[in-house]
Amino acid sequence: MKKKVCTIFYVSDGTGITAETVGYSLITQFKDIDFQQTRLPFIDSIKKAQAAADIIANTPSDFQPLVINTVVDIELRRIIHSAGGLKLDPFNRLLRRIEKNLGIERDPGVGRAHGISNKQRYDARIEATNFALSHDDGMRLNYVDADLILLGVSRSGKTPTCLYLALHYGLKAANYPITDDDLEAMKLPKEVMEFKNKLFGLTIDPFRLSQIRTERRPGSRYAELRKCQAEVSDAENIFHRNQIGFLSTTHTSIEEIAGKIMVELNFNRRLY
Amino acid sequence: MKKKVCTIFYVSDGTGITAETVGYSLITQFKDIDFQQTRLPFIDSIKKAQAAADIIANTPSDFQPLVINTVVDIELRRIIHSAGGLKLDPFNRLLRRIEKNLGIERDPGVGRAHGISNKQRYDARIEATNFALSHDDGMRLNYVDADLILLGVSRSGKTPTCLYLALHYGLKAANYPITDDDLEAMKLPKEVMEFKNKLFGLTIDPFRLSQIRTERRPGSRYAELRKCQAEVSDAENIFHRNQIGFLSTTHTSIEEIAGKIMVELNFNRRLY
What we know:
Helix content of chain A: 40-55%
Radius of gyration of chain A: 24 Å
Oligomer: homodimer
Distance between the termini of chain A: 42 Å
CATH topology of the largest domain in chain A: Rossmann fold
CATH architecture of the largest domain in chain A: 3-Layer(aba) Sandwich
Number of strands of chain A: 8
Largest interface: A-B, 78 and 78 residues
Largest sheet of chain A: 4 strands, parallel
CATH class of the largest domain in chain A: Alpha Beta
Shape of chain A: elongated
Structural class of chain A: alpha/beta
Order of helices and strands of chain A: EHEHEHEHHEHEHHEHHEH
């Protein structure tokens, strides 16, 4: 049976990331509906608000459209809601409760969640991203400035995790690919072991690894299941022997991997 | 005068990204309070919930602690709220309204916003990230598979933007650094111009550019203000002449740059 369609719109005067994050969390709880999601970001003029209202009113939907609206300006809000969607404001009620708790009124003109509120933090994430790039894949074995060093066999998920940690948390995340030589010697280079408290390992199901490597180099020894099984098993042995914490990336999203690493290594950084 | 402190906790059985995104949006509207933010992710057992409650109860705060709690399990929620914080649930009320609109009850067991819900989409973002890395900084001038190509002078913000677009939207974002030769010839290579509809330019304030380049190579001609001014002005000329859309990264966050590029190039991709 074809699922019924419900449109949902993320309307914002900024990037719409907050509206989308909230809306996506809501709709994941209804599996029998086919939600058609549309982001309507940077709605900061009457003309754009009217265009947004037109889209909301005219996109086919089997239900009243859902509208997550985080636009601050009252006139623009009114135009957007003239389209007749179900108004879902994630903040208003919570803000009133916080105002009461603090005994202070909000100042809606102030922050913008994903704008450039703090130059220093912005620079930190750019610097961390550059660090991750220049210390990717064992390119430089100089980890004095690293906040953490991810270890793992080739294609276990190190690079995307490092980039995510850098872009979102400003962490200087290096990564070192465990080589065949390391596996044979059953130990890691001294440049790496020197920073034992910065180390964290990634592992992966060998079947999955073989699949990923096959896409990259079909028919190679590198992609053979037996080779992948041996590498993963040896790498996990190295982690165990050296008491290096590790986790499997097989059924884990980048966000979850990053989050768990930060818990394990005790980083309490803010999300950018 | 020293600001009063209010603790805020982002408690989740997953990554806590949704809770943090909501909470951060709320507190940006109160500028006179020093909010002490703590993420308490992966709270999925009674023991962890009790540890979280201890942290909430025992962290010094001039106000009742704020608790954004997105944990699903009722018993764990109860333990967390036994700490006496102000319960701020961003979803419950909205979910009830959506249930009414759809005539369907939610199924809380279903989705998890930042878990690995869709393998295909997960693979797409990894593939896009690899693409961004292998097509960074004009490394490969083969843009057949690119979704977009960012142009700009060295250090105008191309690389972090490409990585963000890849990691979050699965977009294959290449970037091409406009060279001195291009600027002198006042045109772009044919390998780039071939894909005119994929092009987007980044520009930057020359003072800011000079500052960034100085940090990288102090005292170099590359970092000289006059050189930066000439490069930026010539690059903008090339954009104008070729009717290539562009924006300035000077006062813009990575999220905003990415969002605006997607609007300009008409991508309606979901946020991962």
